[in-house]
Amino acid sequence: MNAAEIARHSRAGVAVEVVPETGSTNADLMERAAALDAPLLLVAEHQTAGRGRAGRSWLSAPGDSLTFSLAWKFDAPLQQLAGMPLAVGVALADALAACGVQVQLKWPNDVLKDGSKLAGVLIETQSGAGGIWAVIGIGMNLRMPDEMEARIGRTVAAAPWLAQMDRDQLMATLLDSLAAALAEFSRSGFGAFSARWNRLHAWQGRTVAVLDRGATLYEGLAAGVDDSGRLLLDCAEGRMTVLAGDVSLRTREA
Prior knowledge:
By secondary structure, the protein is α+β, with helices and mostly antiparallel strands. The protein folds into two domains: 3-199, BirA Bifunctional Protein, domain 2; 207-251, SH3 type barrels, CATH 2.30.30.100. The chain has seven helices and twelve strands. It has helices at residues 3-9, 25-32, 84-98, 146-152, 160-163, 167-188, 194-199, and strands at 15-19, 40-44, 65-74, 104-106, 110-113, 116-128, 131-141, 207-212, 215-225, 231-235, 238-242, 248-251. The strands form two sheets. A seven-stranded mixed β-sheet has the order 1-2-3-7-6-5-4, sandwiched between helices. A five-stranded antiparallel β-sheet has the order 11-10-9-8-12. Helix 1 packs across helix 6 (167-188) and helix 3 packs antiparallel against helix 6. The longest helix is centred in the C-terminal third of the chain and has 22 residues, at 167-188. The model has no long low-confidence stretch (mean pLDDT 87).
């Protein structure tokens, strides 16, 4: 990919850097956040130490995925940034729909295609003078060779149609959608996204378990999210809300 071409195709006005290889684009931007004075998109052709939530690894092969991070500054306190991963999911879904790929969203940070994971979001923050830098890391599968799926150890999704697109234009489309969503999130919070997220909710009405380190904390029917991004769960005792934190979600059949 070419940074100048991505910037040329984009309307976001965000600086773009492309590197052939790095350990983690999130780690790189977290190290640089204190010195940044404007948003920055960092794209890696290949990541050797990509990370997901709760310290999980994100495995990818050169040319078969998109791995990138966007650093964005917020003036709001950290507690007002709750729901940002879900807003990012909506932005990704909008961009992919514009490219002809329909997806759904799984709480709190996964993009699903045909029921399997296509993309994941990892957001890390760093407080500094004048605000908080959020580093939004995204890994998205384009092709999924059998040997890579075997290494991952579960069924995952791919989007071969996207793999045939011009990569610079695809990256610019994703950047524009993310930049617009983050600006809207900064103005209005997750409440501006909750209805859209709920329309894309993959597990609406299904029985799910909320897990913490493999132990089931709660079980009930998934009923979408509220305006803060909390999962709504209809349990035997009534409706409850679940904060994301480090918990994960599974359907009963899983």
